[in-house]
Amino acid sequence: MKSIKQIAGYYKRKFGTSNPFEIAEFLNIEVIFDNFDKCSGCYLFMKNHRCIFINKNLEYRDRMLVMAHELGHAILHRKMNCYFIRNKTFLLTSKIEREANRFAVDLLIDDKELEEYEDKTVGQLSEIFGIEPALIELRLKE
């Protein structure tokens, strides 16, 4: 069985990008932007149709992270409806949320980029990549 890191790497190589919006387009996953009160994004699977909803009020970096997370659901949990709410952290307790988080950080941060910044702290990496420290720590775990 392939690891989540291998799966994320496969899609980056296959489509020549780590941009989750571009990968979703290649996979014919519909992406809808809308106003949500407390929801950053969610993935829905309906009648063999995959759809990701993204809060259009998110800043660019948050939008990329939420999209990568929801794309993780679309790829790893294809037939599940995954409703993801972000309050203070993306680190939720359920297995599928942890897997989607892992996919997101593996997609967005290359090993080469980490090597380039190997002398940086978790806090510094968080600033560089615009990803919260807990997710940077998740990415650093192999």
Automatic annotation (TrEMBL):
Q: Which UniProt keywords apply?
A: Hydrolase
In terms of Pfam families, this protein maps to: Peptidase_M78
One term of GO molecular function: hydrolase activity
Q: Which organism is it from?
A: Anaerotignum propionicum DSM 1682
Q: Which InterPro entries match?
A: IrrE_HExxH (IPR010359), Rad_response_metalloprotease (IPR052345)
Write down what this protein is called: Metallopeptidase ImmA
**Where do transmembrane segments lie in this chain?**
none
Tell me the ranges covered by the IrrE N-terminal-like domain, including all copies: 27-140
Question: Which E.C. number(s) belong to this protein?
Answer: 3.4.-.-
